[in-house]
């Protein structure tokens, strides 16, 4: 299976070897778009797509995502990055240049419930989620067979709050050894320490099974049932040290009614969790998200 | 205008003079449906629609709503109600028999923002919200002209927390004088005292501008904006003494993104508030809602 | 894997050994509900759930689905069915009594695109789609490995319009040999002959990749793209001899915009196809659907 | 009422006196964004918002909408337009520069059903639909009172297919006399001749009560009911000479079920028609729509 996916990845890399994405955040002022687009033009790049957002044209932040194509990009990359420094300094830019052929390395953390993991693997198999899934990490053996059958490494690391530090140490070593760019918590039911979160800042995406900020914390379906809500939801967000308080990437909901008990809600909710997490992960992989303070700009 | 609506109401009453709705709540056990349907059959009634819900067939509550048609219903009504007592006692029923031609009397409370009021009036004019709108009560003069142009009484009762008791006294007198069955808080921005709420138990419907239980209390759009949510919502619920904690009738949401500030959310939200409140009010008028503990069964 | 599912199925059968569902279609007239519920009560059955629909109380059709529980149902089944004949005759009923423990036997037909098949198998593995998936039939080998890894028989039957008759002969033999109750066309790209359709009347569910009646026939995404629609959809329906004209069970849509080309629409659409087909199949397995003329009543 | 709206309009004009929107369509090639943004920068303009779409970077069309702010715009407008000709010629641009303070003049055509008209007027009153509604034209007197009560001119022009030419002559004179920029058919049930359509090319927005291309033509709800669909919808589009075939601007749907007859669908549908038409009209007024061949790009 892995070889079949690998082939898709290789085709994708080749097709996109001249494409890059430029993400910029800086104080708003006239001339930014003119300078950047002039720069790209002079370096032989053609803008394919561009989205921008001015928080407040008079004194707010300015955000832009530009996707461009440039012949011989690999050879020119260093030069482009060096030359861009001048503009970046002039406008006090916080910027990143991401090469599309640099497929991101991803680790998926999961506990017992496999639905969110399965959705990601399904999107990955069908070529719609372009990442190098380097490993699945779990505190349960449940998903091993399925994960390994796809040729993906499965690391069983038992965890509980008493051994949290040692567990995370092991996880961090593993993640660093594989240069992981993105950690997806696909219903991983362990709390992460500030140290772990800090180590992978804005690189951990979680799926929470409620429409936050409703039902922060444990057992949201049980609490939704007791409250008698008519909608249940799911929220994907970057993980910060405040539980379920990180920047929200995507949310969605589904209708429920008086006939649905907490268990029915859990089942209905799984379908929302799957799609909300998959959308958030894809947007991250496509460099569509800029985190600003405690919010996301999703282009 | 009122005469045009009155005509619609008269036609409706005549068309439905033989229709009634039976709402029952009782401990679940075998034989309830058999007894009730046999009873209706023996009294010459034909069941038009019926919905039921068993919380838990082994020992929970049972709920049923039956809509039936019965020739000469007006003459037979007393007899039916009397005869039904036997069944009601046998099964320990909490029941109500509502005659469709008994159009409910409704009062709408509103403060400054008129959108929810306007939606109700629009549905009422088009004949889709079958009620006798006896009055609009407001602590602002803003909507007077529009309300009176439709031939509806407008009562301006200034209100603030210092004079709450006197204000409510005046309101209660007015509502009782007109035998009001339903009070709709269409963005009425005053808190009601326990006394007022108790006086009209399960007869006050409010619209809250968030998907509860997120953003209970004041300024939900401002707080939604600060939290960076990707969905905003509205919730209609019966009013209890716990602020925004009453039984939820209906909820809905709309997507927002990073470009929408609190003011944009307020505008987008108005459209959800309008439809969520209108649906809840219509369901109440059609006797579709049974309140059980802090939840609603909506048939 | 199959043994794991088999275990779930066994638990389900045992938990539901006393449950049955009664589906009735007959001319509307007073006394139907009274007679049926009285009958069930006298036979010791407790109604758990009941939904009904009167097309037009004065002279239309009446439809009802009753789910009931009855101690020792297996021993009493014959007696109940025999005794019910009297009522059925009196009211000219078209009726079916389905025992919940009689898990339905299902065959899935698929061509190359596996997404709809995968969704069904995923729901089946998680215990949410309660069926005995007896076989997958395909005119391509693509899905063999995955299907067989779940312990399900995979039958590769090459097909094209020149050998349609022979192919269907083989398929019918196979389906009959396994007493198949439901055939799901999970993106099976071959047209079925009237003979095949007639053999399994109201037992074949198809997923069509458009919101019918828009884009009947081939290449709906290509045509949706050319027309510039802002919504794409999917429709599950029972198969009849008129292409894409059978009774619709379920539909849903997703938003697209000018950036989405036909290939993007195909990908977005797959997600709708998956959920729309899964819902339709589950409703069929739960005996929630009554076909009347060219429409479905879904309880 | 009109004076109250007029005040809002005046405030809006003043707040936006330095804002403009540039819409461009041209063959794609490198350097477009650089040239345009450099041009704006040199003329003292600050880009507030910008969206673009490349049909196909290698040889397709390129579309961009830029919203910018420029001090003393009114004095500079002529110079900007003149200077821009050079760039426009270089890149073979089809372009428009729209000044935000130039509020568009709008006429609404309606027949008997007032719901779509009412929604537009409601959005207009609340300041969310920024237009100068110069007149309502109708072939029925139904809405006169309501329209005139808002201070808007109401023109009753009886129409039928025998007098189509004369009727349209009268309408065209009226529209031209008031320099109408946009004609909204808010459920106007008369067919327009090619002459009328040609006179106001891409300036007539219609609301059709189905999700096109399903149910082109008359009585879509009746036909949706007969087909047994589970979704009904509405479509707003620019009017062309092919009935219901013009470029689609926006669509939406709502769920229906077997209980809903054609009349229920009509009522449910009205709510979709209202919001779909209002969104389309607002996008047009905000210069968000570029028509290309038979499609719309909506920025």
Word description of this protein:
Chains A, B, C, D: It is an enzyme of class 3 (hydrolase). Chains A, B, C, D: Residues 21-102 form the ACT domain. Chains A, B, C, D: This is Formyltetrahydrofolate deformylase. 4 copies of one chain form a homotetramer. Chain A is an alpha/beta fold and 299 residues long. Chain A folds into 2 domains: 8-99, ACT domain (Alpha-Beta Plaits); 105-298, Formyl transferase, N-terminal domain (Rossmann fold, 3-Layer(aba) Sandwich). The mean pLDDT of chain A is 95. Chain A has 9 helices and 13 strands. In chain A, helix 4 (115-125) packs parallel to helix 9 (262-285) and helix 8 (220-227) crosses helix 9 (262-285). Helices cover 37% and strands 28% of the residues of chain A. Chains in contact: A-B, A-C, A-D, B-C, B-D, C-D. At the A-D interface, helix 2 and strand 2 of A face helix 2 and strand 2 of D.
CATH level 1 name of the largest domain in chain A: Alpha Beta
Kindly state the percentage of residues in helix of chain A.
25-40%
Domain count of chain A: the total is 2
Which CATH-level-2 architecture of the largest domain in chain A?
3-Layer(aba) Sandwich
Number of helices of chain A: 9
Query: Which assembly state applies to the chains in this document?
Result: homotetramer
Radius of gyration of chain A: 21 Å
Query: The CATH topology of the largest domain in chain A, please?
Result: Rossmann fold
Number of strands of chain A: 13
* Secondary-structure class of chain A: alpha/beta
- Give the rounded overall mean pLDDT of chain A: 95
Query: Which residues of chain A sit in consecutive blocks of at least 5 with pLDDT less than 50?
Result: none
Shape of chain A: globular
- Biggest interface in this structure? A-B, 27 and 27 residues
Q: What percentage of the residues of chain A does DSSP assign to strands (E)?
A: 25-35%
The CATH homologous superfamily of the largest domain in chain A is named Formyl transferase, N-terminal domain
The CA-CA distance between the termini of chain A, in Å, is 33 Å
Series of H and E elements of chain A: HEHEEHEEHEHEHEHEHEEHEE
State the strand order across the main sheet of chain A.
Answer: 7-6-5-8-9-10-11
User: Main sheet of chain A, how many strands, which sense, barrel?
Assistant: 7 strands, mixed
């Amino acid at each position: 299976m892995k070889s079949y996916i690998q082939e898709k990845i290789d085709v994708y890399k080749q097709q996109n070897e001249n494409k890059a994405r430029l993400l910029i955040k800086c104080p708003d002022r006239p001339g930014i778009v003119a300078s950047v687009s002039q720069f790209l033009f002079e370096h032989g790049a053609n803008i394919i797509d561009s989205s921008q957002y001015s928080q407040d044209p008079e004194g707010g932040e300015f955000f832009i995502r530009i996707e461009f194509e440039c012949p011989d990009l690999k050879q020119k990359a260093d030069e482009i990055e060096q030359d861009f420094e001048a503009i970046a300094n002039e406008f006090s830019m916080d910027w990143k240049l991401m090469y599309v052929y640099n497929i991101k390395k991803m680790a998926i953390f999961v506990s017992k419930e496999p639905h969110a993991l399965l959705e990601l693997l399904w999107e990955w198999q069908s070529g719609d989620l372009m990442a190098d899934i380097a490993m699945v990490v779990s505190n349960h053996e449940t998903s091993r067979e399925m994960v390994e059958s796809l040729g993906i490494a499965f690391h069983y690391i038992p965890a509980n709050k008493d051994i949290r530090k040692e567990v995370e140490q092991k996880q961090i070593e593993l993640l660093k050894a594989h240069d992981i760019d993105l950690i997806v918590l696909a219903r991983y039911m362990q709390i992460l320490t500030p140290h772990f979160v800090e180590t992978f800042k804005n690189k951990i995406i979680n799926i929470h099974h409620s429409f936050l900020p409703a039902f922060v914390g444990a057992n949201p379906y049980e609490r939704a049932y007791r409250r008698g809500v008519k909608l249940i939801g799911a929220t994907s967000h970057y993980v910060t040290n405040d539980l379920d308080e990180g920047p929200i990437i995507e949310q969605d909901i589904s209708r429920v009614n008086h006939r649905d008990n907490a268990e029915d809600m859990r089942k209905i909710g799984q379908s929302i969790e799957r799609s909300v997490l998959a959308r958030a992960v894809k947007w991250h992989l496509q460099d569509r998200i800029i985190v600003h303070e405690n919010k996301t700009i999703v282009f």
